[in-house]
């Protein structure tokens, strides 16, 4: 038998190779008869070889991080290089409420006890939100105010263990899946009768920890549960025989509860006199709806980040180090990008700029920015200033002109609906939902053609849009970067279009546009629309534009209002190439709601107009109109 045939994993090929071998031996004559005893033996040999080959292949695959497919093996390989996969994450909301005491009260403070705080009812299902630690507020002027406290979705579960040193391999296993490991609290007391507790803290990096530090680490076990591992007396405090470990944590519903904003209070309140306060009549103010819930880190994500995390060596020196550390330090990060200030124009040495796309949200809160910056300081060199910038969206709007054969469909509206559905799926693809994303034009137009058999071709035009948020009634200069080369024929105008706004110098609504003075640069203009519907230039030089880099620099303007109710000025342009990238901190967003689909009958393909005299052509780089509507 040849080596190629012998190594095949296909059952039939293995069986054929055995038969080929037997043909060379005249002692066996009935191997080709399916009902014979020898044929059955061949089947058994082929099956045994097939199973052994499969097992050998799987064992070899599971021995390496990149090829392993079983989660337990991927976890083990990741742990060997110091990577702890992210657990499930509970969604978190911020609420405020106040308790008013009677005039004769003697209470000096009020404590919100650990456990359930609020309930949210969605589609006849109750979801509990809790706190993992007691929260105390002072009573001032007969009022105890709890301001912007963070509540975490899920129920608080408690477990206890008694240390038994006679057991050589005692494990402290948490029984529940879907544990948010950031909520794990561990207290240890000397014995069952002791009332003195020591709080142990969770660490991921044991470097620098002394032999007396009360620390523990976690390890993901089978069935997506977790094991607690304590110190051995050399690194971390060692537990003694008879110690009692009390553990509490939250079991959550992951991303099911993102976006909740209606809560009913059901917490436990105890004042300084140990009197319980009735929860009746307590009104909750929601400061932030629930966000940040996410599923357990996937196998794909573990493979992606584990080796990169090893490369960082617990320090942030290169931009790749920052991009790897941020998802570990901030679990709500969906994607992150970092770049050095020396790459900017003009250069800003000694600074690292970071932009983060959070899960289920568009922007980071000030609290989250401060937290991330402080955590990154622990890893970055002294003297490096980390600047966390707000997320900048580069919106992509599509004008799809789909040609279809009328003899292959009865409803153009059905095809149009399918195109929008495909567009939504394309917007959620991996190429677009990350920094450094890329819109691949050829892939999109192919996806349009494949949406329905009746579609014969399509001409899709692309518009880029940035949203300018003006400082109302203040003089400010603005910069908009598109990160892609822009389309602008020499001596042309209205390549740039904006929605309307007003400035202090004019009472009419004005618009922003450009005039290309060369193939690479141009001037920015302000104009209004006169009574005849024609543009009238008011200011012929209010800034510059670089078409090659896609950068607009708007001189100081005092913008007093915008025509859009959300207070932004939308500025659109046409890209030179329809293959688009998200440069540096630009995050691509395919705006399905502002894209259009036009269905055009292809009478040539349907056979009703083979001469083509009635064919409707669709222009590219369509610049109709003077301003954005």
What's a quick, concise take on this entry?
By secondary structure, the protein is an alpha+beta fold. Helices cover 19% and strands 35% of the residues. The chain has five domains: 3-62; 92-154 and 255-291, no CATH class; 156-251; 313-390, GMP Synthetase, Chain A, domain 3, CATH 3.30.300.200; 391-629, no CATH class.
What does this structure look like?
The protein is an alpha+beta fold and 629 residues long. It has five domains: 3-62; 92-154 and 255-291, no CATH class; 156-251; 313-390, GMP Synthetase, Chain A, domain 3; 391-629, no CATH class. 19% of the residues lie in helices and 35% in strands. Strands 1, 2, 3, 4, 5, 6, 14, 15, 16 and 17 form a ten-stranded antiparallel sheet that branches. Helix 5 (299-312) crosses helix 6 (319-329). It is globular and about 90 Å long.
Q: What are the low-pLDDT stretches, counting only 5+ consecutive residues below 50?
A: 1-6
Largest sheet at a glance?
10 strands, antiparallel
**Judging from the principal axes of the Cα atoms, what is the shape?**
globular
Number of domains: 5
Distance between the termini: 73 Å
Write down how many β-strands occur, each being a DSSP E stretch of 2 or more residues. 35
State which percent range the strand residues make up: 35-45%
Rg (CA only):
33 Å
The percent of residues in helical segments reads 10-25%
Helical stretch count? Answer: 10
Content-based structural category: alpha+beta
Average residue-wise pLDDT? 90
Quaternary structure of the protein: single chain
């Amino acid at each position: 038998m040849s080596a190629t045939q012998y190594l095949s994993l296909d059952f039939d090929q293995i069986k054929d190779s055995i038969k080929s071998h037997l043909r060379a031996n005249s002692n066996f004559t009935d191997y080709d008869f399916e009902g014979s005893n020898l044929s059955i033996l061949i089947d058994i040999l082929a099956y045994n070889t097939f199973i052994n080959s499969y097992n050998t292949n799987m064992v070899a695959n599971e021995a390496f991080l990149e090829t392993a497919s079983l989660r337990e093996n991927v976890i083990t390989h990741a742990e060997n290089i110091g990577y702890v996969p992210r657990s499930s994450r509970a969604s978190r909301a911020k609420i405020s409420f106040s308790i008013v005491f009677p005039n004769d009260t003697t209470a000096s403070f009020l404590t919100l006890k650990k456990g359930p705080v609020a309930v949210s009812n969605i589609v006849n299902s109750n979801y509990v939100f809790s706190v993992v630690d007691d929260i105390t507020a002072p009573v001032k002027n007969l009022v105890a105010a709890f301001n912007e406290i963070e509540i975490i979705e899920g129920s608080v579960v408690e477990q206890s263990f008694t240390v038994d040193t006679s057991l050589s391999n005692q494990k402290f296993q948490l029984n529940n899946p879907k544990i948010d490991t950031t909520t794990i609290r561990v207290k240890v007391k000397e014995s069952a009768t002791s009332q003195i507790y020591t709080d142990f803290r969770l660490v991921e990096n044991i470097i620098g920890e002394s032999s007396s530090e009360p620390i523990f680490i976690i390890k993901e076990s089978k069935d997506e549960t977790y094991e607690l591992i304590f110190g051995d007396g050399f690194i971390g405090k060692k537990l003694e025989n008879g110690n009692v470990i009390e553990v509490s944590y939250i079991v959550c519903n992951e991303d099911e509860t993102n976006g909740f904003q209606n809560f009913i209070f059901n917490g436990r309140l105890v004042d300084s006199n140990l009197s319980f306060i009735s929860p009746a009549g307590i009104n909750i103010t929601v400061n932030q709806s629930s966000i940040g819930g996410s599923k357990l880190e996937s196998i794909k994500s573990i493979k992606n980040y584990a080796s990169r995390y090893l490369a960082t060596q617990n320090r942030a020196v290169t931009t790749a180090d920052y991009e790897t550390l941020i998802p570990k330090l901030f679990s709500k990060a969906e994607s992150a990008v970092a770049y050095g200030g020396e790459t900017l124009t003009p250069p800003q040495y000694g600074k690292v700029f970071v932009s983060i796309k959070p899960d289920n949200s568009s922007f980071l809160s000030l609290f989250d920015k401060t937290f991330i910056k402080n955590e990154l300081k622990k890893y970055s060199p002294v003297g490096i200033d980390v600047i966390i910038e707000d997320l900048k969206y580069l919106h992509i709007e599509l004008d799809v002109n789909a040609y279809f054969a009328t003899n292959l469909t009865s409803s153009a509206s059905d095809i149009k609906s399918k195109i929008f559905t495909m567009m939504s799926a394309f917007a959620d693809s991996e190429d677009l939902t990350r920094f450094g994303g890329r819109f691949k034009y050829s892939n999109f137009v192919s996806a349009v053609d494949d949406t329905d058999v009746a579609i014969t071709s399509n001409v899709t035009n692309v518009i880029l849009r940035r949203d300018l948020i003006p400082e109302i009634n203040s003089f400010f200069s603005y910069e908009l970067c598109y990160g892609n080369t822009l389309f602008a024929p020499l001596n042309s105008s209205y390549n740039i279009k904006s929605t309307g706004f007003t400035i202090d110098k004019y009472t009419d609504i004005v618009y922003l546009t450009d005039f290309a003075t060369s193939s690479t640069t141009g001037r920015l203009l302000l104009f209004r629309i006169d009574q005849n519907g024609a543009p009238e230039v008011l200011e012929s030089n209010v800034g510059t534009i670089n078409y090659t880099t896609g950068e607009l620099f708007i001189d100081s303007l005092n913008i007093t209002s915008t025509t859009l109710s959300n207070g932004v000025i939308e500025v659109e342009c046409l890209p030179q190439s329809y293959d688009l990238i998200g440069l540096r901190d630009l995050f691509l967003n395919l705006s399905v709601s502002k894209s259009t689909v036009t269905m055009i009958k292809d009478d040539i393909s349907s056979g009703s107009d083979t001469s083509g005299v009635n064919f409707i052509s669709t222009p590219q780089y369509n610049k109709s109109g003077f301003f954005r509507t």
